[in-house]
Write a structure and sequence with these properties.
Blueprint: H1 2-69, E1 72-74, H2 77-83, E2 87-89, E3 91-95, E4 99-106, E5 112-116, E6 121-126, E7 133-134, E8 139-144, H3 146-177, H4 183-209, H5 214-218, E9 229-233, E10 238-242, E11 250-251, E12 256-261, E13 265-273, E14 285-290, E15 293-305, E16 315-323, E17 334-339, E18 347-353, E19 358-360, E20 363-371, E21 374-385, E22 389-394, E23 401-403, H6 407-420
Antiparallel strand pairs: 1-21, 2-23, 3-18, 4-13, 4-17, 5-12, 6-8, 6-11, 7-10, 8-9, 10-12, 13-16, 14-15, 14-17, 15-16, 18-22, 19-20, 20-21, 21-22
Helix pairs in contact: 3-4
Length: 424
């Protein structure tokens, strides 16, 4: 019985040792595989990272080379000679900026005429329309007015009555002086003559008010037909800009029939800031530009300076007169105005000659020499601009040189290369 127990115990110990050995071997194997995998992974990761990093360096170098060559224009000796390139150095200058303001183009007060009828009536004829150029005195329309017919008839009757009363008074005076008639009859006749003369004058004034001249009144007689037509004549030379009436329309003196504008001379109402008021004066020259005519400058003079400052904007209305014989400037346009002779706030900045700066769309560009017949295109930010100098706010360093004469040719070459592409 003891032998059987001993055998069972030995067998259990043997099984346990075998299981322990197997488990330990598996763990070591798992550890080795894991360690090997991690090491392999690290090495692989290191290799991938190294390869990737090396690739990035090559891309960065390539990008850097492209960036360095971007905007680089190389001319042949023949092109350089043809461009006659000259250079100028970016330099500090103390300049006074011109005052630049905005304004609106308007017709002058005496350049607009509103034509209306002096009597009520019906429009029977219209001989001019919107856009037509007319001369002073030209008939633009006709109105049939019964009111005018009655006024003419009243005048003829009053004139006749005044004539008869005057003759009667003169006859009574002669009779009274000869002691043939009583003084009372003479006095009554004289009073009647005075009354009828006043009535005639009232009728004459009314016809003058309705537009008839003395010559037309002189031609009115009792034995003729008195027409009721009223003509509408242009009071000034100009262009018809409004005609708010139509044929057959009934109108009265409050209705405007034509609006005529003479735009051979226009005004620009300019808003000038209060702080700049001391630098402007009546008679100063002004240069104006409008978007419709981008390559044209209009010159004029300051005619008047407003008497009040607008509380909200702190600006003063300045009126500039500009000749406009060709009609290029239209009332309602907005203009950018440079007030010549103004100085603004004097200060120091970095400037290049205006000839060096070219426009490329909405950007300002210059060309910097970087080698023999090689030039780098630079985009710059500009500040104050005068007729000869342009301030460079950003894009160039003090002492750098830029192309002046020949910059337009370089711009054309840069554009040609941009469309044609670069060869690498």
């Amino acid at each position: 019985m003891r032998s059987a127990h001993t055998i069972a115990l030995l067998f259990a110990v043997a099984l346990g040792a075998h299981a322990c050995g197997k488990g330990s071997g598996h763990a070591e194997k798992g550890h080795d595989e894991k360690g090997h995998d991690e090491k392999g992974h690290d090495e692989k990761g290191h290799d991938e990272k190294g390869e990737k990093g090396h690739g990035d360096d090559e891309h960065g170098d390539e990008h850097g080379d492209e960036h360095g060559e971007e905007g680089l224009i190389t001319l042949t000796p023949a092109q350089a000679a043809s461009a006659k390139i000259t250079l100028a150095t970016l330099e500090k200058r103390a300049v006074s900026s011109e005052i630049v303001a905005t304004g609106e183009i308007v017709a002058p007060d005496d350049g607009i005429a509103r034509l209306g009828a002096k009597v009520s009536g019906r429009v029977t004829k219209l001989s001019a329309g919107v856009g037509d150029r007319v001369k002073k005195g030209q008939v633009l329309g006709v109105i049939d007015s019964p009111e005018l017919g009655r006024a003419k008839a009243d005048y003829v009757a009053a004139a006749a009555a005044a004539k008869v009363a005057r003759e009667s008074a003169d006859r009574e005076k002669a009779l009274w002086e000869r002691k043939i008639s009583a003084e009372r009859d003479y006095r009554l006749a004289e009073a009647e003559a005075t009354k009828t003369r006043a009535e005639k004058e009232a009728a004459e004034v009314r016809l003058h008010t309705l537009g008839l001249s003395d010559a037309q009144l002189a031609r009115l007689t009792a034995d003729q037909h008195h027409g009721s037509s009223v003509t509408l004549a242009a009071p000034i030379d100009g262009v018809v800009v409004e005609r708010p009436v139509t044929l057959g329309q009934m109108i009265d003196p409050a209705v405007t029939t034509f609006v005529i504008m003479d735009a051979r001379k226009v005004w620009i109402q300019v808003d000038v800031y209060e702080k700049d008021l001391a630098q402007i004066a009546v008679g100063n020259k002004v240069a104006a530009e409008v978007k419709a005519w981008a390559n044209r400058t209009f010159t004029g003079t300051i005619e008047s300076i407003g008497a009040i400052v607008e509380a909200r904007s702190r600006t003063i209305k300045v009126r500039v007169a500009i000749d406009n014989a060709d009609g290029a400037l239209k009332p309602g346009m907005f203009a950018s105005v440079k007030l010549a002779g103004s100085t603004g706030d004097a200060r120091e900045g970095l400037f290049v000659p205006a000839a060096a700066v070219q426009r490329d769309g909405d950007e300002s560009i210059v060309f910097v020499p970087v080698g023999e017949h090689q030039f780098q295109l630079r985009t710059i930010e500009i500040g104050v601009r005068t007729s000869e100098w342009v301030e460079v706010v950003r894009g160039l360093a003090p002492g750098e040189r830029v192309v002046t004469t020949g910059s337009f040719q370089l711009k054309s070459e840069a554009r040609r290369e941009s469309f044609g592409g670069h060869e690498h």
